Each structure stands twice: as structure tokens, then as C-alpha cells.
Amino acid sequence: MYQYDKFDQAIVDARVEEFRDQVNRRINGEMTEDQFKPLRLMNGLYLQLHAYMLRVAIPYGTLSGKQMRMLGHIARKYDRDYGHFTTRQNIQYNWIKLEDTPDILADLASVEMHAIQTSGNCIRNISSDQYAGAAADEVADPRPWAELLRQWSTFHPEFSYLPRKFKIAVIASQEDRAAMRLHDIGLELVMRDGVLGARVFVGGGMGRTPMIAPEIAEFVKADDLLSYLEACLRVYNRYGRRDNAYKARIKILIHELGADEYRRQVAEEFAHVKTLGIDPPLAELERISAYFAPPAYEQGLSDEIDRSNPAFAHWVDQNVKAHKQPGYAIVNISLKPVGGIPGDASSDQIDLMADLAEKYGFDELRVTHAQNIVLPFVAKRDLFTVWQALDAAGIANANLDLVTDIIACPGLDYCSLANARSIPVAQKIAERFADAERQRDIGELKLKISGCINACGHHHAGHIGILGVDKKGVENYQLTLGGSGAEDVSIGKITGPGFDEDGIVDAVERAVEKYRAVRVEGERFIDTYRRVGADSFKEAIYG
Amino acid sequence: MVDVIRFRDDAANDQPLVSVEALSGQTNATAVRLESDEDARALLPYLNQLALIEVAFPTFRDGRGYSAARILREAGFTGELRAQGDVLVDQIPSMRRCGFDSFIANAPVDQATLDKSLNRYDHVYQPAADAALPVWKLRHG
Q1: A501-528: pLDDT as tens digits
Q2: Nearest-CA distance from A268 to chain B in Å?
Q3: What's the complex ipTM?
Q4: A251: helix, coil or strand?
Q5: Fewer beta carbons within 10 Å, N or C terminal of chain B?
Q6: Which residues of chain A register pLDDT less than 50?
Q7: Which CATH architecture has domain A310-392?
């Protein structure tokens, strides 16, 4: 894992003092709320329905046991004993007091963490593949590139007041576990003639106008990457729309210009920017990469797993994934208990996951965009012990990628933007499909719920998506089918009229039963939907 | 009396500001105002005659002026580059990095707060229009 040197630490420490000063000026009345708002937002502090909400950055979703434990400490000391892991691999706390925030940031800085640029119209936390460094199908570890981008984008003086927020994801596998093409910029690392570089996709996103990012460059070398990205961002900063916040994301600019014209403008800007010498030498990427060297695996470990405990065997089948190192496995910890709040974890659960990472996982954890946690480096001989500990803490849910592994935004229970509640809908659907055998029979089904058009719950990318809207003062839920955030990326299509809270649960069940009735061997829900088409599903749903 | 915060030692330019459009007809104009939706590159043919370029910030959220400043400095402009409008004290350090060296802010700027914020960070991660060396340069020489 990356470790701060004196420069990184000095920058984060200075940030704590800067924010302390800003908070003091606000509390003393030297600043109005209007003046304070852009400053707190640049630091992940939102004013929500009931309290301040603080979003803490987890760069590319990677953290150590010590860092994880600090997240538990913050939940215990400054919040209500839990935190919420988000679809951007971050964590947010829902009940924060303004006057505590400088101390929270100081606590975070003591373990090389921060809340820099977790909101605001700037470059946000860089996201990545939660299996980075462990996946058998990766051409390289994407995390050094993500760290390079983290540093480059931190307090970037030109790009702190963009037309709108800006999200970048980096992957290095053909299998896309990070919804790469639904980001403002998606980078896919590829090897060409023995040289590692990036395919660059620009202009994807969800929100009210979902778009899949087109490819803008087929190959950018590592030592050109930052110049190329500066060119991409500069064209956007100058020409992205600022007259309407809903049309201000880069996807709209690219849609209006066309990908070819945007590509041409970027190429022209790149030819100029490349002369400025802003790219670090390759030695910097090598320096960072050294921190991500593979852990000291034990050699010659067995791949045998004792499956005599049936509950354990189900968990292994569903939540444990193949590792590139013999004798090891990737463990997914689902934060989706039936009846729970998707992505929430208590301080004690956070501590336990930190303990397990330290004892059995080479001191490393990942947060996934599906709001789960990963232990990327666990020896197969330790799987049963890890499972027992998780089970005792209530987080051995064997439902990864099943219908109850629901992504949901905080919705109207917390969020000031929401039109409808998401959490109760997620809970009712999970209860409806609680039967474990039925879930396994249904198989992979990505169900995603957003409480408003901003789509934080990724409903456009759900095999089944649910969008909460306000219909004349009543919560109403629209159903979309056929979306995907993976390498088979697609945007879901709305089925028809919306439903009330109980109606949407019934509608989901009818769609699922339609799939079970017409599927052929080996088909997932999404495959069947794509084969038979929307109409026959509509008929099943609306009769 | 307009309050100008200035980080230059030369004498201030007191010529009237002309618009970008008017510039092409006025070969003796030395000061120009760039609105936030105007293309900074339209000024490149005139850089030798200009002593002052004022860039408008109609709201603090409008960040186009940061790119305008960098483009002008990258093209070799060494005259006064001024940010005018809804310029907040906490934005001035980034503006300095992009090449601005004078400021006229709608709301009064507290000098002590500004001094503190300009001196807060010893290090930067990326090169810009100022002389600060990025940390990768300090790491690798």
C-alpha cells in the first residue's frame, strides 16, 4: 500500500489547519454560510436534512487495518457508532457536528487519510477495481496510476472550480468491476508492444442524462498521461456549460460537440500542454509502484477448502473469488444483511474487519462501489476462521451479486436532494427475497436504487434499477431494466408507469419470476432480458 | 477608490480597460478586460502591447478564468494579470498559482487571513504558472 512521505504528510497536515481556520471563521461569524459553503464542500462536508454529513476519501478504495480502525473510532467518537460506505469507495458519517470536523480531520491525517475533494466541482476521489493486485485477469496493478492521479489532482489550481464535479476511474482488466465507462474519465490500462499505457474514455456518467463514455484516445503512454488529462480537463473547464447545473457535466459537452470534435480539441490542447513539462518522470510512477509490490505470499499452500459446513460452503461459493496467487483467495464481505441498510457498518464491525485484515489479509482492505468490503489477500486455509468471525459479527452474508446485494443511496432518510426514500425499499425487497435458496437460484442480479434523479444509487446501471420520484407529494418508484455497469455496459430502460412502495416490490418480483420462467441454461437475468426483449417483461410486470 | 491587491513591484497601469473586441482597432491600448466567456487566445496577437489584462469572475463558481490565466502565462505574458469580481480570499492562492498577480475583489479581503492562506502550503503536487516546484521534482531532482 502507498505510504505518505514527508511531502504528502505536510500537505495533508496543512489542510487540517486550513480547514480549522475556515471553521473558526465560520463559527466566529467572519464568514456567512454562503461564503463557507464552497469551502466546506471542497472538504466533503455537506449540510443534510438533519445534520452535517462528512465524506472521507478512501483513495481507490484501498486502506490498511489501522486506517479502517480509525474509521471505526470516528464513528464511535463523533457519530452514532456507524458509518456508510458509498458507491465511490468512500465512507460518510451522517451525524457530524461542525465544531468537531477539524479534530476529525486531524485524526484522519494521523493515519494518512483526508476528506480532500470528496465534494465540490473538482476532481473527486479516484476510483478503481477492488480486486487490484489480486485479480488474475489484470495486465497491471491500476493502483499506482490511481495514486499518481490522486497527487496530480489534489488542489489542482486550474481545476478546482470546474463546471461540475469530475470523477475518474482506473481499471486494468477486461472485466470491469468499477463501472469505468460511467465516469467523466475512465482509464483502462492496456499493454501495447510491451509498453503499458491507457485507453481513455471521456464523457460517461449517470445522473439525469446517463451516458456511456466514448473512447477518446486508444493509447496514451504513462509519461504523457497527465498532460493528456490536463488537455481533457482544460477543454472542459473552458467550454463546459455553466448556464445550467444539470447540463454542466462533461458528458453534455461531448454529446453537444460530438466525440470527434472533442477529440480534435483535446489533441490540439495536448500538443501545447505537452511542451510545458508537467509530466513527472517515469521514476515517479516506479517509486509509487514499489509500494504496491505483492505481499509476502507463503509458497506451496494448498488450494483445498474443507466444505463440510454447508453455510460456509455457500459463502465460499458466493463471496470468495479466484486469486492470482495459488493457495490464496479474494474475500468479499457483504454489508447487505437482509433488513439492514446497504453499505452501513457499525464501529464494532469496522474494527473486526480491520482485525481480520491484519491477522489474515496482509493488512489490507478495499471498499467496493457496490458498498461492500474486500479482503484481497486471504490464504484459503484461513477462510473458515475468517468466516466464523464474520458470522459472529453478522456480516457473513452469502449474497454477493445476488438480488439482495442491493446498492442504495441514503435517500430521503438523510439526503437533502432526495425525492423519495431508498432504504426502506431496499429492505422490503431484501425481505421479499430473503430465502437463500431462491436467491441462489435467481443468480447474479444487480439491483440498484436511487432516491432521486441524481442517480447516486446507480439505478441506470442496474440489471434492475429503481428510481424514486416525487409524484404530487407522494413517493413513487419507477422501474428500469437492462442496465449494466460492467464490461457489458448499458443504460437501463424505464418499463412504464411507476409504483408505490409496496407496488415496486411486487413489480420486481414479477420481473424476476418472468426471468425464471423463460431463462435458458446459463443465462443471467440480464442475458435473458437482452434476449427476449423489454416487451415481454413489460407484459409480465403490467399484465 | 478601488482596492487593488497587487503582487508586483512595477508602477500600476492606469490606462482605461478596453474590451477584447475593441482591441483590434486600438493599436495603442495597453489594458484589456477579458470576460469569463471570452477566449483568452484571442489576446495572443496583442500580448506585446499589453501591460494589464483583467479577467472577470462574475461568480466565484465560474472557474474559466483560471484556465485563461494559465494560457496567457504559458504564451509568455509577463504583464499584470488581474482577477476582478467575486474573488474569495480562499481562492487567491490557486489564482496566484495560475498566474494572477493582482486582484480586485467585490467583498473586502482580510489581509491577515490572506497572508496566512498564501503561506500555508509549503508544497504542491503539480507544476502551474508559478515558480513552485512540484513534489515529484523534489523527490527526483
Answers
A1: 999 999 999 999 999 999 999 999 999 9
A2: 13
A3: 0.97
A4: helix
A5: N
A6: none
A7: 2-Layer Sandwich (3.30)
Task: Give the domain range for residue B86.
Answer: 5-140
The CATH topology of domain A407-542 is Sulfite Reductase Hemoprotein; domain 1 (3.30.413)
Looking at residue A533, its pLDDT comes to: 96
User: Does the distance separating the beta carbons of B138 and A7 come in below 8 Å?
Assistant: yes
Domain with residue B28: its CATH number is 3.40.50
Are A157 and B113 inside 8 Å of each other by CB?
no
- Please write down the HEC assignment for all residues of A95-145: EECHHHHHHHHHHHHCCCCCCCCCCCCCECCCEECCCCCCCCCECCCCHHH
Parallel, antiparallel or unpaired: strands A185-192 and A168-171: parallel
Residue A353 belongs to what H/E stretch?
helix A347-360
Q: Which chain B residues touch A17 with a CB distance below 8 Å?
A: 120
Distance CA A117, CA A205 (A): 18
Rg, Å, chain A Cα set: 23
**Shared fold status for A6-109 and A142-288:** no
Q: Do B127 and A276 touch (CB under 8 A)?
A: yes
Question: A293 vs chain B: nearest CA distance in angstroms?
Answer: 20
Q: Where are chain A's structural domains?
A: 6-109, 142-288, 310-392, 407-542
Average pLDDT over residues B46-74: 97
